[in-house]
Structure formats: C-alpha cells, structure tokens
Design the sequence.
C-alpha cells in the first residue's frame, strides 16, 4: 500500500492543543464526520525553502519512516550542511468510511512482515512490532472516539550545480536526518532545470500514515510575516512559499516605492498591480505617467485610454480629459477608468513646463474626485530634477491618504529619492519594492526599511528578459522578505 506507521508511541489527540491546523469538530451526521469533541486536522500544506543560488539539478526524496519528536530541528540540521533544499509537508485526515479499512490492512501487513523477519532482522522486527502496536492504538481510538488517522506526505527536494555533487548531497542528507529519526528515500533522478524555473511548490509523492502529534512534529512551522489576505496577491514569500497580499489603501500610508535597474521587472510589477485590481472589479480611478510608452492599454483587462501631452496646449486640456473619462466611467462601461499619460518623446524647450503641468493636473484631479485612486509615476526621477515639481510631488505623497490616493513612485536609482527635497517621498511611502540593483549602499538601507533583511544581495535578484518570473525585496516597514512575482495564466511575463 505504500504506507508505514510511525514507530513512536501514540498520544491521544485530545491532549493536543488546538493550534493552527487543528479544530474541534462535532458530529455532522455525514460519512466524513467525527465523534463530537474529538480533534480533527484540517487539510493543510506547508513549505520551506533554503537557497543561496539557483541550481541546475535537483532530486526528490520522500518520507518513508519516522521516529522523530524534535520539531523543526531537522531544518536547522539541513541548513547547517550548506545544501540548497526545499521541503513540502502536507496532511489530511483519512475519510471515516476508509479509516478502519486502512488501519486493519496495515496492521495485518506489518504483522506478516514481522513474522517473516526472523531472528536476523531483530531491529526490523522490533520496529514492525511498534508499528503494529501503534496501528492497534489508532484503531482503538477510531472505534471508541471517532478519532481518525492522518495521511501525511513529506517531500524533500535537494539542489546542486552538478549531478555528482547532487548525488553526494543526497547521501549526506539521508545519513544526517536518519540519525535523528527521519528516513527519506529517493523517488526521482536528477533533472536538468533552467535557472528561471524554480518551482513554486513541490507535489507530494509518498503517503505516510501518522497521528496528528507526529505530523505536527515535522511541519515546518514558520511565520509568513503577512497573514492578512486583504487586497491583491503580490506574489509568493520565497522562504515559505506562502502568498503575500497587500491592500494599498490600508495602513497609515497608501504610498509605495518601486526601485530597480533597467530590465529588472519593476514596470511589469506595476502593470501586475493594476491588472490584479481590475480583475477584482475594484472601483478605482488610475493615472499612469508613461514617458517610455511601456504601458499598452491592451495589457489591461479593463477600459483604458492614452492621453498624449506633446505641447502646452495638451497640458491645458489634460485635467479636463482625465476628469471626463473618470466621471463617465461611473455611468458607462464604454468609458476608460485607466488614463495613461504620455509626455511625448521630444524634450524641447517646453519639456520641463509639460512635466510641471502634468503633475499639477494629477494633483488637482486627485483632490477633486471621490473614491480610491492609484497614481503610477514611472521614471519618477524626471520630476525630481526640478525643485518646483519635487515640491508638488512632496505635497502629493504627504496628503495622499486624505484624498484616497495611492502614489506608486518608480525609479532606477535609490539616490533619486535621497536629495533633501525628495526624501519625504521615502518617509511617506509605507511599502518599498527593491528589484535588482547595484546602486544600494549601506547608508540607504535604513531609509528603505531593509535593516532586517540580509538574506540575499539585491544585485542577484532574478527578473527581466529571459526569466518567467521576477524577484524583489519587499518591506512594509515592519518586515522585509524576498518576494517572487509569478504571472498567472493569461498574464504573460515580458521576455
């Protein structure tokens, strides 16, 4: 059957605290119900990753046997070996109708194995004897109290740069964790993988019958650092594979900064944010400042219009154009709710005046219109070259919360925001998304709220041409994490 029982003693489930993954369950009357007052494990899956670099080969190992009660200590053992790995642990209760059948079959199977073990397999025989005892105890709990056994899977993926190193790493891992009571067996050969296809999850392979106390001892419990699920899904926490959500309109500040060198994935991330809000059907008005013409309306699954600002005459009518499309949007599905403003590519004598006019129109529009609004200022450094424009932008970010506006400022260099006139943009932005960059210095780390992040240097972050996803360091002011942005179906990442 592919199942094995844990060799350690069984503890009645009533003694287990109702922590995450457990709940009190009453009898629902269905075939899948349990006895009133018993403990039931909710189906769950937990993941943990430890990476120093991208590797081209991997192999999967699956949990075969366990006599282990040391909690997440095995993760620290693996980390201390300096081997890149990822682990997925999942669990769910066996259906009531099948629980008794499962247990009786395995008890009979292990009893037969024990009889055939003979005197030369004393250790194996003792282990099987313990498993038979555990199985009988599980069956007794099931029949007496309706407490169901748990099916668990634990899959460990080992990475390396070369097949020979991979083979050596597998042997080291198997020997090390077997000494502390966890026996894993290899279930796959090494496959060649590309640097940009690190999987989000690992599918479990071998089922393993356990009680819930035993399952809880191997779950890689780790705080996600972002438990709330309000707003949109930004991506996945690279450490534990949990989705990370953000509502830009919650918290003391609605503003964000996106930083990264050319081709690091920052503009796609901004498009991703807008696209996600549109998919939710959020009632938003959006302005995108697009000097490099990177935001095509065809990307968004929503109504969108492009407003060209090629001269001062266009500037004069800009506010009216934005107001008209936004106001009409509430009355007609044919009108745009996204305004892409392009200042033109010719930097003539009116260039600075056009930028000033655009920023002034944005400010007056967000002040007048009701409802939530998002303003994306791509290539934000263009505004920061002028003191007059910087003052307007300073006022925008400081008062954005009062007007229901989220300002997302995008630039290539951290230094753009560190001048005296523009530093308030950082101080009034709650969220910082740092994509691949070589311009981050130690003196800027504190200002960007990245003091507690030292896992990976930002110049090694993936993203851009040749990648199917991008990475950034995301800080909300309280917690910094490495974030992986992976497009959903229908969201093509630029290659």
Sequence:
């Amino acid at each position: 059957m592919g199942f094995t029982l844990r060799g350690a003693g069984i503890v009645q489930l009533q003694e287990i605290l109702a922590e995450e993954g457990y709940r009190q369950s009453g009898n629902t009357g269905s075939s899948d119900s349990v006895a009133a007052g018993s403990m039931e494990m909710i189906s769950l899956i937990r993941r943990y990753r430890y990476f120093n670099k991208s590797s081209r080969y991997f192999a999967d190992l699956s949990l075969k046997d366990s006599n282990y009660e040391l909690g997440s200590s095995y993760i620290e053992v693996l980390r201390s070996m300096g081997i890149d790995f990822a682990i997925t642990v999942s669990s769910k209760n066996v259906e009531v109708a099948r629980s008794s059948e499962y247990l009786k079959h395995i008890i009979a199977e292990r009893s037969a194995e024990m009889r055939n073990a003979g005197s030369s397999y004393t250790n194996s025989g003792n282990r099987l004897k313990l498993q038979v005892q555990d199985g009988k105890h599980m069956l007794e709990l099931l029949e007496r109290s309706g407490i169901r056994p748990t099916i668990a899977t634990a899959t460990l993926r080992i990475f390396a740069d070369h097949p020979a190193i991979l083979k050596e790493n597998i042997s080291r891992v198997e020997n090390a964790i077997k000494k502390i009571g966890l026996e894993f067996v290899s279930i796959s050969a090494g496959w060649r993988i590309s640097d940009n296809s690190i999987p989000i999850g690992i599918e479990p392979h071998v089922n393993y019958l356990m009680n819930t106390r035993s399952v809880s001892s191997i779950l890689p419990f780790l705080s996600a650092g972002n438990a709330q699920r309000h707003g949109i899904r930004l991506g996945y926490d690279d450490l534990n594979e949990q989705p990370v959500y953000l509502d830009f309109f919650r918290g003391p500040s609605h503003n964000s900064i996106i930083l990264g060198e050319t081709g690091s994935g920052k503009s796609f991330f901004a498009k991703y944010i807008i696209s996600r809000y549109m998919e939710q059907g959020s009632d938003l008005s959006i302005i995108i400042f697009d000097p490099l013409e990177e935001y095509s309306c065809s990307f968004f699954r929503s109504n969108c219009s492009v407003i060209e600002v090629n001269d001062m005459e266009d500037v004069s009518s800009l506010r009216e154009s934005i107001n008209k499309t936004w106001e009409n949007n509430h009355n007609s599905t044919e009108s745009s709710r996204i305004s892409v403003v392009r200042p033109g590519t010719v930097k003539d004598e009116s260039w600075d005046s056009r930028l000033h006019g655009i920023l002034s129109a944005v400010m007056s529009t967000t002040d007048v219109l009701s409802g939530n609004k998002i303003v994306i200022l791509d290539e934000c450094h263009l505004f920061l070259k002028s003191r007059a424009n910087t003052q307007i932008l300073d006022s925008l970010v400081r008062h954005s919360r009062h007007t229901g506006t989220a300002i997302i400022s995008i630039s290539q260099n951290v230094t753009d925001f560190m001048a005296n006139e523009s530093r308030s943009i950082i101080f009034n932005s709650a969220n910082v998304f740092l994509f691949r960059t070589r311009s981050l210095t130690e003196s800027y780390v504190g200002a960007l709220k990245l003091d507690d992040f030292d896992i990976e240097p930002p110049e090694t972050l993936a993203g851009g041409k040749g990648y199917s996803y991008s990475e950034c360091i995301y800080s909300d002011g309280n917690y910094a994490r490495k974030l992986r942005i992976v497009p959903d179906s229908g969201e093509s990442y630029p290659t």
The chain is about 30% helix and 25% strand. Residues 122-145 form the longest helix (24 residues). The mean pLDDT is 75.
